[in-house]
Amino acid sequence: MTYCLGIHTRHGLVMASDSRTNAGYDQVNVTRKMHTFVLPGERAFILLCSGSLSLTQSIITLLGRDFDLGKGLASVANMYDAAREIGEQVRRVSEMDRAALERDELRYNVHFLLGGQIAGQPPDLYLIYPQGNPLRATEDSPFLQIGEVKYGRPILVRGIRYQETPLEEAAKYALISIDSTMRSNVTVGAPIDICIYHRDELDINHRRRMTDKDPDLIEIHQQWEQTLRKGVSELPEIDFDTYGQKI
Question: Are 73 and 45 in contact (CB under 8 A)?
Fold first, then answer.
């Protein structure tokens, strides 16, 4: 399993992913799920992936080949077209591999998150489904997730605000979201890759990989748990005597 998320605020983007892949309980590996495509000063894309590793590797390879030739993501006119370009490669690999997979009762399972910006346009964030169709984040729903999404969603729903949340704070929400998921699901694990993209930067300058021994990640984990326990202890007491009913 995988957990990746993208956060979009008026200040830019935060993209984060775990790095654990598994094929059964005895075959667990570390694989990077964050990929970047950059023409400095012109365009910058961050791509996160979940699903079958062989399929996502094929799609990333095809996107990279075209990018190196000045095609595909290197030439699209806007972020919507970039999402559609990824969708076309998703469909291309589907045409090559889906029938063989389904003969052996294996799903064609790939999802992508695309965040980035093209010069002269605002940053944007998209989710691309296995069918190749894209979904765009909005001001009302300023984050997107793929993979094992349920454990890390509550903190994002309560905390992320498009107009108000600074990127550095959004990055903390992203790390807490992934940490909560890792605590709840053993198929999601470190290292964590996290990238902060500031609006109009048009390059990838703030990117970090955090292992489970990373002192910053450990401190965030410990302080979050302590703060959560303290917050619960300070909530109003529940009055069972006045309002309680016998069962």
Answer: yes
Distance between CA atoms of residues 205 and 182, nearest Å:
27
**Amino acid residing at 169:** E
Distance CA 136, CA 142 (A): 9
| 200 Rama sector, left if φ>0, alpha if ψ -120 to 50, beta otherwise | left
247: how many CB neighbours lie within 10 A of its CB? 3
Evaluate the CA torsion angle 119, 123, 129, 135 in order and state its sign.
negative
State the Cα–Cα distance between residues 87 and 77, nearest whole angstrom.
15
The 3-state secondary structure of the chain, one letter per residue: CCEEEEEEECCEEEEEECCEEECCCCCEEECCCEEEEEECCCEEEEEEEEECHHHHHHHHHHHHHHHHCCCHHHCCCCHHHHHHHHHHHHHHHHHHHHHHHHHCCCCCCEEEEEEEEECCCCCEEEEECCCCCEEECCCCCCEEEEECCCCCHHHHHHHCCCCCCCHHHHHHHHHHHHHHHHHHCCCCCCCEEEEEEECCCCCCCCEEEECCCCHHHHHHHHHHHHHHHHHHHCCCCCCHHHHCCCC
Residue type, 72: G
pTM listed for this prediction:
0.95
For residue range 146-199, list pLDDT tens digits in order: 999 999 999 999 999 999 999 999 999 999 999 999 999 988 999 999 999 999
Tokens of 66: 């075209």
Tell me the C-alpha distance between 82 and 95, whole Å.
20
* Contact assessment for residue 2 and residue 50, using Cβ atoms and an 8 Å cutoff: yes
